[in-house]
Amino acid sequence: MDAEARIRALAIWRGPVEPVRLDGGITNHNFLVEDDGRRYVARIGEDIPVHGVMRFNERAASVAAHAAGVSPAVRHAADGVLVIDHVAGRTLTSEDVRAELPRVVELVKRTHRETQRHLRGPALAFWPFHVLRDYIHGLREGGHRFAQDLPRFSAIAERLEAAVGPTEMVFAHNDLLPGNFLDDGARLWLIDWDYAGFNSPLFDLGNLASNNELSPGERETLLTLYYDRPPDDALRLRFQAMLTASLLRETLWSMASELSSTIDFDYRAYTAENLLRFERAYRAFTDMDDA
């Protein structure tokens, strides 16, 4: 049964529906559904163990995030289908995130502070350095075209993990792309909880900064807003280590997707783009760490 047919067959609808495919989604397929005067987003996606995406965890995170007031309500979840309320508003761009940084950071802080209070049942951790090690093992076993670079990536990951050191733990989103923020005109929402899990808040902050091309000054503002104080050199170094780890993770994610994904997406180009960004971030980290 194809994705549209699976959505049409759901028993939750009050009448016949005609799903309309939405743009985006490189780990799932998203559809807009209208039923009885209301709009919903239906997400179709199976478990993706190579990326640590488990749909039971996405469901639990989505439900908890709604209870925390940061994400739309879940209306149905079963058999690789998640149906949530549609938010009428605009998807943020990187420019919007930078312009609305105080509102964005407040949403991230609320996510970290409140979501775990509502979480029920088993939940995953998302420790980026475990994720990196797992990708490296898989890429080596899969004979990836960058196999000769994997020992270097492994050594860099160890250096970054040592620089991060002991950390506090929150329930984090871990995929703060601009497209995962929605503005309904009155408030911001955070969507797409595929990679949610317990993690250091610094990963979300580094991920937010790298995904939205924050300038050095904006990164200072980001840390000041989140921690309610200007950052010192030690925090700047730990933040840069996590930012770099986030970009290495995105690079290896794309490399693994080259080997495993069936979604129509140019992963080779995405690998090249993120590899360049990672190398720039790592040079900045080494400059700070060696100073």
UniProtKB/TrEMBL annotation:
InterPro entries: Aminoglycoside_PTrfase, Kinase-like_dom_sf. The keyword Nucleotide-binding does not apply. One of its GO terms (molecular function) is ethanolamine kinase activity. Residues 21-229 form the Aminoglycoside phosphotransferase domain. One of its GO terms (biological process) is phosphatidylethanolamine biosynthetic process. Keywords: Kinase, Transferase. GO terms for cellular component: cytoplasm. This is Choline kinase. It comes from Methylopila turkensis.
